[in-house]
Amino acid sequence: MLSNDVAMPLALILNELLTNAVKHGVKDHARQGVRVSLTEHDERLALCVEDDGEGFDLEAVRKTSSGLQLVLGLARQLHGTLHVTKSPSRACLDFPAAKS
Question: How confident is the model at residue 62 (pLDDT cuts 50, 70, 90)?
Answer without folding.
Answer: confident
